[in-house]
Amino acid sequence: MASVTKHEFEREDLILVRREQRAEGGFVAWVLVNNESKKNALPVEGRALLASIMTELSTDPELRCVVLTGVKDNFIGGANIGQMADFPDHVVAELGSKTTHHACDSIRRVPVPVIARIEGYCLGAGMEIATSCDMRVASTTAKFGMPEVKYGVPSGMEACLIPRLTGWGKAMELVFTGEIISAEEAYHFNYVEKLVAPEDLDAQTARWVDSICEAGPRAIRIQKELCRDWEQMSIADAVQAGVRAVGRAHTTDEPKRLMSAWRERQRKRREAREG
Questions:
Q1: Dihedral over Cα of 143, 74, 200, 29: its sign
Q2: Which of 35, 73, 203, 274 gets the highest tally of CB atoms within 10 A of its CB?
Q3: 55 exposure class (CB count in 10 Å sphere: 0-12, 13-18, 19+)
Q4: What is the structure's pLDDT at 93?
Q5: Could you tell me if 41 and 13 lie in one domain?
Q6: Over 50: is that where the pLDDT of 210 sits?
Q7: Is 12 in the same domain as 96?
């Protein structure tokens, strides 16, 4: 992997970006939240920076996949409560909420899959950010929660996406009690797709990344767009959108090329067995 480099923004140390060039072509972006002393809590400027980085990455046609994680055994421990406590109420209500939404929305708009690699704390704004990713893999050490009501404010913005993963009952429990739940409980309620031992977290993340990068890059981008369309469509409209998406995929040689490569691999395996 390439070495970690700091992104050229104000407070650039809050987010680190690493580009991993792939043998299949293109690159995978590793985006690391870097606020170790505060369990990777993201202050307003950190959330704004995350939005800027995700928006910039989205413009690069060579981007194949994004992995979002945190440094030193935590994902994102929420917003910076100390910072918010010092802000005037109108600033928190306006600036704090909008920067959280912009960070989450920028993730959802990335035209390729975004993987949340989660260990340690994933709380509040951090859980909203993880929910905005396409796939979530968590270590058994991870802890999840939406503690905003304990600080006198409701869970807003992209917290509205949580019921789509967990169902309404579990989502209501999280936002009404503010309690922290274990990784096992989050997995049981379908919040995370994979739950692994800490030592297997990188391997599982790599398996997902490898699978995405081995697929057709154009097909992946069309699939991401289609998945976002599904969220807003009736079944009938979603089916028709799928028909159009398949048609778009066949306007280049990517399907024929990848299918031919598969047939050649099958031929070689058959010859090896018979051989």
A1: positive
A2: 35
A3: middle
A4: 60
A5: yes
A6: yes
A7: yes
